[in-house]
């Protein structure tokens, strides 16, 4: 990264912090986080995801695009990525920053309605960053079980979360749970939770 690129990235990061925090002040429950995830944290998520499997990649709750950028930095073709963002302003920003990525302003909890594909699209990996801790555990497990119906064989779901235990408990016979090491340079420090198809070996 040259000096000019580094300065541009730093300015963008400061702007994103201000916008993200402003949105959090207006609706903290919807946002879940007070600041965008760190670049290291987003890179850890991408490294934990099964992007090496052929097929499209689904990003849920991309915010202002930290994980999107990490996917591209890791060499993922932007044409493979579908990013679903509920916040209209964030979605507009994503479309401007990543014109080759399929950005959809919609509900990441209802993929059939948002994608309008009758459940046909199967993904190599799902990267999840939507707050769900307000939901009962049974609802979280049911939601992730539906996501696993959307994964290709061997595909996994990765989740950004500040919780120190799995936000979604394993569903025997469907998916297991593991995690990355703690990423200390995130605000606050956090793990990537990795949900793998039952019996599959995690990437990390």
Automatic annotation (TrEMBL):
It holds the Pfam family Methyltransf_25. The keyword Metal-binding does not apply. It is an enzyme of class 2 (transferase). Residues 57-155 form the Methyltransferase domain. CDD domains: AdoMet_MTases (cd02440). InterPro entries: Methyltransf_25, rRNA_Ade_Mease_Trfase_CS, SAM-dependent_MTases_sf. Keywords: Methyltransferase, S-adenosyl-L-methionine, Transferase. Gene3D superfamilies: Vaccinia Virus protein VP39 (3.40.50.150). Its EC number is 2.1.1.17, 2.1.1.71. One of its GO terms (molecular function) is phosphatidyl-N-methylethanolamine N-methyltransferase activity. This is Phosphatidylethanolamine/phosphatidyl-N-methylethanolamine N-methyltransferase. It comes from Aureimonas phyllosphaerae.
């Amino acid at each position: 990264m040259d000096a000019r690129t580094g300065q541009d990235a730093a300015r963008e990061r400061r702007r994103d912090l201000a916008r993200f925090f402003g949105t959090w002040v207006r609706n903290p429950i919807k946002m879940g986080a007070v600041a965008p995830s760190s670049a290291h944290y987003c890179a850890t998520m991408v490294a934990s995801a099964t992007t090496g499997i052929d097929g499209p990649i689904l990003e849920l709750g991309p915010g202002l695009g930290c994980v999107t950028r990490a996917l591209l930095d890791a060499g993922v073709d932007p044409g493979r990525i579908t990013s679903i963002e509920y916040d209209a302003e964030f979605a507009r920003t994503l479309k401007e920053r990543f014109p080759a990525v399929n950005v959809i302003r919609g509900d990441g909890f209802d993929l059939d309605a948002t994608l309008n594909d009758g459940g046909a699209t199967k993904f190599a990996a799902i990267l999840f960053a939507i707050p769900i801790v307000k939901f009962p555990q049974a609802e979280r497990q049911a939601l992730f079980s539906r996501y696993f119906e959307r994964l290709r064989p061997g595909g996994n779901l990765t989740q950004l979360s500040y919780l120190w235990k799995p936000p979604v408990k394993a569903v025997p016979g469907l998916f297991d749970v593991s995690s990355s090491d703690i990423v200390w340079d995130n605000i606050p420090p956090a793990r990537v939770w990795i949900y793998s198809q039952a019996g599959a070996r995690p990437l990390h």
